[in-house]
Amino acid sequence: MFVREAEFKDYSKIAQLHTHNWQQAYQGILDDQYLEDRLSVEHQAIWQTRLTQPPLNQGVILLEEGDKLCGFVCLYGNHSFEHGTMIDNLHVADGYRGKGLGKKLMSEAAKWATKHFADVGMYLEVLTKNESAKAFYDSINGIDAGEVTWKAPCGSHIACHTMTWASPSALLDKTD
Questions:
Q1: For residue 159, what are the contacts with CB-CB under 8 A and spacing of at least 6?
Q2: 20 to 30 Å CA-CA from 133: which of 55, 74, 89, 126?
Q3: Structural domain of residue 167, as residue ranges?
């Protein structure tokens, strides 16, 4: 397994994995027509934009096996005054789940945050109905800071929980 930071050339395969995972995890939660008709095009545009001129506080870390994208994490350093660095995306490909890659990606995110934004916490938002993801974050000592509502791109309002870690080192202690 090879770890590296994403480059522009990676946008399409990142978008494909992101789209596939949303279609699986969010079916019945987000609008089905949105997931089938618009999501792929939107994710291609999002990732092309994110990797064309990334903001200085953005990190996108890939896990690869050969030329296969096994997973990725995208984070934004010091994104929130209250919670710190935001983990915006964490995705593992089919066939690689249950093998510790999510934990490895969270560890890599914590290392990146330690290098760039060590003095602030880390957080992410997880859909309330995404019980397996919530259980994973609980297992690595994510602290539930409460419920928020996400206005999804399809227009739906979705209940989420904000999971926090006091610092990158607190997350690294549970993932490395």
A1: 127, 128, 129, 147, 148, 149, 150
A2: 55
A3: 2-175
